[in-house]
Amino acid sequence: MSESATPKSDIKDPTKNVSTPKREPKDLSVAPKRDSKDLTLPTKRDSKDAIKSRHDIFIQEIESMDDFWGSTFRAVYDKGEQDQFARQLDERIREHDRTIERMCSSHYQGFIDSIRELLQVRTEASKLKNEVVGVHDELVTQSRQLLSQGDALARARRRQANTEQGVAALMACLPVLEMYSKLRRQMAEQRFYPALKTLEQLEVLYLPRVADHRFAQAICESIPKMRDNIRAAAMSDVKDFLEEVRCESPRVGEAAMRHAAEQFFVERPPPARLQKRHTLAFLGVTAISPIALYGEDGDGEASDEEGAAQDLVNFSAVYRCLHIFTALGARDAFEEYYRKQRQKQCSLALQAPSGGLAQDSLVAVQDYLHGVAGFFVIEDHVLNTATGLVTRVSLDQLWDEALSELTGALQTHAACCTDPNLLLTFKRLIMVFSHTLRNYGFNVKPLHGLLLEVRDHYSEVLMQRWVGVFREIFDQDNYHPIEVDSPQEYEQITRVFPYSDAELARQPFPKTFPFSLMVPKVFSQVKEFIHSCLRFAEDLDLSQGERDDLLRQSTNVLLTRTLSGCLATLIRIPGLGLLQLIQITINTIHLEQASVYLEDVITKITGYNPKQDGGVQSTLLGRVMFKDIRAETEQQIYRQLQAKIDEFLELAAYDWLLPEPSGTASPFLVDLISFLEATFGAFTNLPAHVAQTACMSACQHVARQLRQMLLGEEARQLSTGALQQLNLDVIQCEQFAASEPVAGFEEGALLMCFADLRQLLDLVLEWDWATYFAEYGSPTSRYGRVTPATAVKVVERLRDADKRNMFSVLKRAERDKKKLQDTVLKQLRQLVAQVGSS
Q: Is the C-alpha dihedral spanning 784, 786, 792, 795 positive or negative?
């Protein structure tokens, strides 16, 4: 910068017009600051020093503050010291002036030097200014070029940004369009659950990124419709699945029960002692094997390859629908719909087939059980695989309700069945069904109770069958002792019936057993009944004691009700002969003795030993039953014997006015004695008391009937010849009684049966009235069994017979006889009167 740029006249010399201060600076003491509000009005007593110090304070306040001096001035004016304050203020101003002058004097030379240096820098400053102007012009030119290029660059950058934004928008739209295309493809392929997941991703992740585009809004509007379509399609799949499982439930149940049957009957083979028995073979029928219901044994490999029962149903539809409805937020509605539909299907499955158990309806019952088993096998699989769709509580509740209805239906069917074989098959079907459901964790205790009820019905059916068996045995029996001609026949009888007799074994052939063929047949059929009962009980999970008690109870019922009733009916048959009754009595004796062996049979079958197991073993009531039947049979024998005696006595044709006896016993009585001898000869195998009772009752009945004939209304008149003929008959009877037709009587025991009749005949025929009257009432009387009334009746009838002979009055002997009769009658009537008065 040149000197001409700045004229010299513009720069003044700082030394000019500067006066040198002559006053010395005066030090100002700084008084403490004081608030003007604390000042009070001056008083006369204020001293000058106090005023001066106060004014100093005011001045210090003015010096320390740039504004707001009003309070200070007010305090001055309030004191009325403005003049004094003004003077003191002027004095302070002068002090400051002196201070300034003193400072200027001390720094004046330095200021002059600074001005001179500044004048020297002016040239350089001019040069610098020119250079700055040149740089500025050049910078302006370059800036204009730069601005032009910057505008072009900005336009290019804007185009690039727009392009990038367009590309970014397209890149953001492409995933949305791809997902939407994928969604449409999945919907077309009916892959609804992946489509629902794709729809959820599209709605949550992709569409919010392109929400400003109109196509995104269109897609958003179509999403609810797509969800509705997916829900409708899923519901259609559910309905198809429910229809499929309803149709496939019987197949599933059949497969499950087949597997259970194979497992059950492999684990529990029948006892060796029962494998060769065919309990009902004598009826011409055999039981259906439960394995046969599910195919032959050779099909085992095929069933193994078949796999699990639930593999027959494709559960993917229900899983898929469960996931779909869960994703749709409608899981509760889906679960409720599924459970309600399955409950309806359960009700349909539990509709029992009509009719009772028959060979054809057994297949219907089997299909019925297959359907129920298949339903709950499927539900159990859904419970274990589809979490929450079926709960254990709801499934158990449904099973309890179904089990109650199922039990009632099976009870109704079983109650109509009268075939033991069908009941056995029915029982095994229930066992397989129970085993199947128990394998899947269901409670099957009520089915065990049902089996116990079916067992009772089975026993009743067996009872009815054995009624026919026993009646057939009784009808076919000839009621004659069994006669065997060879050791083989003898061994066959002893093998069937436990009979042992050393004396019979020593006898040569032919040998005769005391009982008829009825005994071994009845005994063998009772054993068959025991085995038949065991066939039903062998799979019921009963202990040895329970099985033993069951067999004993059933056998007791068979003996005391079925066999007892058949025997009671048998002995009451009107056409049954006396010899048949005797043989029946003998048969019951041997059956009673063999009832002990029935207990051994039951113990051997069950293997139950109460002494070792600490239990109580019931006793068969066969002995008591056979005793009761035998007692009734004995009474029937007595009645039959008396009836037969009455038949002979009905042939009696006494001529009570017979003048002379025939000299021999009456023919009917001879035949009667022969019959009695033959009959009592057949009593050899009867117990002694039975034969003795029969013989005693027969003699008593004969004596009673003969006496009744003598004293009856038909014999209104008696002749001595008729009494003598009756005496001959009584003598014949006494000879029979004295011959001891049945062993074991005391001497004269049978003769006492005819004692009444004998004393009466002796008294009348010997006309020993003197002895009668003399010994009357004495314990040792010869005619103690003849009552006065009986004697009166006989004497009157003798007198009436004599009156028929009109010429008897002409004979003295007859007149004396008549007088004697009158005398005897008079005395007898007196005795009758005495007896009546006493």
A: negative
